[in-house]
Amino acid sequence: MTSHESRAVRVGRALASPVGVVITIPLLVIAVGVSILFVGRDATREASLSMARRQLTEQATSIQSDVAFALDQADPLLARLAVFADPTLPRDEVLVRLHDLLIGRPGVAYLSISFPDGTFRGAYLNTKRTIEVQESRIGAEGTLVSRHVVRAGALQWILDEKNTYDPRKRGFYQLAEKTRARAWTAPYTFFGSLQTGISCTEPLYDATNQLRAVLTVDFDVGALSSFVARPAFDKARSVVYTRDGTILAYPAVEQFVRPQADKLLRHEELQDPAL
After folding, report:
1. Average pLDDT along the chain, 275 residues, taken 10 residues at a time
2. Is the pTM of this model over 0.85?
3. Of 89, 118, 171, 207, whose CB has the highest number of CB atoms within 10 Å?
4. For the chain, how are helix, strand and coil distributed in percent, rounded to 5?
């Protein structure tokens, strides 16, 4: 018997002895337990990742549905707005109607009617997300704006002011003139609020094919963000953005700080390290 075979026999006898069994079995149990622990850990991690992916996919689908629902409101709202696209209609009546049209419209920030002489009538969500209405007319010294709220079906004056707003110089109006059909704008900043948003715009023509009004249904970041579904996870953030990275909705924040500059909202502005 060689020395190697002798050593193997001695080891075998030692393991077969009562003391060897007492030592070996616990070691085997520990080894099996550690193996099961690692296998189980990997299986649990994979199951958790799979569940998270599934939930995030469902969340993305939910947000897609929410945004589609919000934007689909443009069609019926434009049809209703067309009824009031007549500058001879009483201002108070039209503004009250616009106010009522905006009630309960998730994601919609503004409804407006613009006329070729620069007169503008609209209903909008203010910074407190309550509805106000306005009419603006262009005068010799600028644009005269009268703002109101609606109380008990009647206008209640808030303030009069002057600014430089002329709807005919805005992108939505010029797009309607160019396309001569309903169209969606690219993202732009809204006058006054400076919020990033998009508009569905539509021109209306009279019997002589002359432009008589331009209608819009507007969606801004604040309105869309307050409507789209929130993430299934506490620390998850949902972002809706365009192909070029302009942010249209970011429901992870409760309120948006009023923009300080006339520029599109980009992910850098949100100061979110993940973005």
Report:
1. 60 56 64 66 75 82 88 96 97 98 96 98 93 96 96 96 96 97 96 93 96 97 84 76 89 65 85 80
2. no
3. 118
4. 40, 25, 35
